[in-house]
Structure formats: C-alpha cells, structure tokens
Amino acid sequence: MNAPFNDPSTDQRALPLTVLIAAPRGFCAGVDRAIEIVERALERYGAPVYVRHEIVHNRFVVDGLRAKGAIFVEELDEVPADAPVVFSAHGVPKSVPAEAQRREMIYLDATCPLVSKVHRQAERQIEKGQHIIFIGHAGHPEVIGTMGQVPAGHMTLVETLEDVDTLPFSQEESLSFLTQTTLSVDDTAEIVQALMARYPQIVAPKAEDICYATSNRQAAVKAMAGSCDLVLVIGAPNSSNSVRLVEVSERMGTCARLIQRASEIDPEWLNGVGTIGVTAGASAPELLVREVVDRLGQLRAIDERKVETVEEKMVFKLPRQLTE
C-alpha cells in the first residue's frame, strides 16, 4: 500500500523518503585541476595568491581558498606586479595573459583544457577566413574569454533560436560555429540544427564542444528525474551547468530547485514527496552533497540509492610551473 504522501492528516516526518543520488555529479576534472592549481600556488609562492575572477562558480570553494590566502579580484590591474596570479577555469581573453607578460608577472592559467580546446578551434577557424557563430550565454566568463581569442567583429554570439533568425549572413559567406562548454545538450542541438538549415555551408567543429562533464550530468538527471517528485541541484545561480541541470529536470516534468547549501532546504518542500533526486553542478564539492543528504535524513527517514549512468575517469595535467 502506498504511503499517503498527500494526506494532510499524515505526519510527513514519519513517512519514508527515497533519495536518489545522481552519478556522475559534482566536481569535474577541470574544476579539480583549477582548485589544485590555486592550492599548489599557495604552497609554492606563499600567501597571498591572486585569482582573477572566481576560480569556479561556487561560494563554498571560493571562501575555502580565500581562507587559505587567495585574494579574488575582477581585473588584472588590482594585482601587484610582484604577486602571483591565477586565471579562472572559465578562460580569459588573450589580452589578459598579454598584459601579464607585459608587466612581467608570475601567472598560472587554470583554464579548463576543454575550454582551451574551443579557443584553439576559434583561432584555426579565423585563420581559414571563417566568421564564427558562437552559441553561448552573453556575459558568462567563458563566453567573454572565448570571444576574446579572436579579433573584434569576427565572432557573433547567438543565445536562442530567435537569434539565428536575425543573423545577417548570406549562404555564400564562409561560416563556422562553436559552442560554450556548459550548455544544455538539447537546446544546443536545436540551435545547431537551425543554423545548419539556414546556412548549409556552415562548418561544424570536429568534435562536440559541450564538455563530457556537462553532458554526463545532464544524462544522469534525465535517468533519475522521471522517478522523482522533486530534484535538488546543488550549485550557484551563476553556474551555467548547474542551472542547466534544473532545466533538464523541469523539461522531464519534475520540479527542481537550485540550492547552494543544505540550510536552504525548506522542510515544506518535502510535503507530498516520496522520492527526491540529488545532484550537483560541476563546481560543487561532494562535501555539500553529503551535507544535503544528511539534512534530508534529519527531516525524514531516508532510503539512499545511487543512479549511475557512466563512470568518469578524466584527469587533466597541471601547468608545468607547478610540477617542475
């Protein structure tokens, strides 16, 4: 007999709660690498080590590094010339390392290698005389960094299908496209399809630009959302890949909430809920996942289960300056 989850006379706290935990979730190889770069820089050079922009989009991670001696700034001119500086995992325009070199600064590039791959593709496409249509979210650090790899006017940003309709190019022009690495797989596929329909001559990248971690986390949510009454996504509001996980769940017809810490959970969210899914964006540490599960266990008796779709084994090398 099913538990009366929607019966207002029932004490919800006495009802069992199934907690499905998505795998993979949380930190990806690029985030692991970026955080380790800051930590090793602190060990090698001593505090303070400056970081241009948030190293990753997670307040818990940023606060933890700040406590160890990292100082986060928005622009390079806030960094003393004799202090080491780390560029964030999202990547930076070419003008940033150029300025660091001009000032003879010690700098470490924590750009995710998969973002760097997109940067190199952009350079090659420009060399071939192609105008690049870049699919991404305006204002996101990764988009700013990627568009800053090529001369102004050689890359056009599109965010939606409607943007594709307003592009001014003809079918005779040499075009190519690239994408931000943390987009919705499904939404991006629709935009790419529209681009190729309007511009049959457009050149696609040799491989998928959306990173393995983004794709894998979205697939894991798809695998579990249909069995859930509610999905909790641990991540920051400015984390593109975390927001996409919320959208994926909602597209599956399951309500989802984006939270940064367990303290944000409202016990009333669990009213009428028999199964809850838990996942985390690529910038959220496993510690926060356990914190959320423990909080759910305080509110209800839980049956914890893992929903694994793929095992991730990706590891990225550290910059040579930190390994020699």
Keywords:
Cobalt-precorrin-4 Transmethylase, domain 1, oxidoreductase, metal ion binding, EC 1.17.7.4, isoprene biosynthesis, 3 domains, alpha/beta, 10 helices, Rossmann fold, four-stranded parallel β-sheet, metal-binding
Characterization of the model:
The structure is a single chain. The chain has about 325 residues and is α/β, with parallel strands linked by helices. It has three domains: about 10-25 and about 210-310, 3-Layer(aba) Sandwich (Cobalt-precorrin-4 Transmethylase, domain 1); about 30-110, Rossmann fold; about 115-210, 3-Layer(aba) Sandwich (Cobalt-precorrin-4 Transmethylase, domain 1). The chain has helices at about 30-45, 60-70, 95-100, 115-125, 140-145, 160-165, 185-200, 210-225, 240-250, 285-300; strands at about 15-25, 50, 70-75, 85, 105-110, 130-135, 155-160, 175-180, 230-235, 255-260, 275-280, 300-310. Helix 2 links the parallel strand 2 and strand 3 (about 70-75). The N and C termini lie far apart (about 65 Å).
The H-level CATH homologous superfamily of the largest domain, spelled out, is 4-hydroxy-3-methylbut-2-enyl diphosphate reductase, catalytic domain
| Helix share, percent | 25-40%
Task: Compute the number of strand runs.
Answer: 12
CATH topology of the largest domain: Cobalt-precorrin-4 Transmethylase, domain 1
Strand content: 15-25%
Main CATH class of the largest domain = Alpha Beta
The DSSP helix count reads: 10
- Shape by Cα distribution: flat
- Largest beta-sheet details: 5 strands, parallel
- Radius of gyration, in Å, reads 22 Å
